[in-house]
Amino acid sequence: MIFGYARVSFTDQNLDRQLKELEAFGCEKIYSEKQSGKDFSRPVYREMRSKMRFGDVLVVHDLSRFGRNKQEIRNEWKSMIDEDIDIVVMNMPILDTRKYKELEGVGQLVSDLVLTLLSWMVDEERNRIKTAQREGIQIAREKGIYTGKKKKYHTGAEGQDKIVYDEVVRLLKTGETVINIRRKTKLSRNTIYRIKREINDN
């Protein structure tokens, strides 16, 4: 079976372009989620991975959709190759392990070389963004114009935001897990944990 996997990091980002490209590729089953790519403990990814078997193919638009940590990427890639699961990175045709079935050792060599380069690039880009964010915040603080990100869901929220906030509070008080609350409300885990901390502090 050909599996497609689409991912963005934040809930306000759009998956449509990735999904259309995976459909056009011919993916028979497509999984998508809005989750950080820092590791592979993402719930939708893990669900998809548990269903993959010998001879299956995983298709992603680009390497950063697969993951954003070079060592994590290499470990996961090797694990899949060891299970005879092929991987296709659409925007990097050389990273299509199906091409090297008859060339013993060549596929692994190509994968190793390209992955080393690309995973390093992904990791460096992630670090660059974090550094730029920190520097931007520091400059804003020095100028006295940084107030932090405005909270959307809180006790003083209004309208739909208040309804969502109250629902999160209700679910937390009934003992619902953060993962289940995230699935029901579509809020990020950080937001839910922040609300949980605020409740516990009161």
From TrEMBL:
Signal peptide residue numbers: none
A family per Pfam: HTH_7
Residues covered by the Resolvase/invertase-type recombinase catalytic domain: 1-144
SUPFAM superfamilies: Resolvase-like
Family to which this protein belongs: Belongs to the site-specific recombinase resolvase family.
PANTHER family attached to this UniProt entry: DNA-INVERTASE FROM LAMBDOID PROPHAGE, RESOLVASE HOMOLOG YNEB
Name of protein: Recombinase
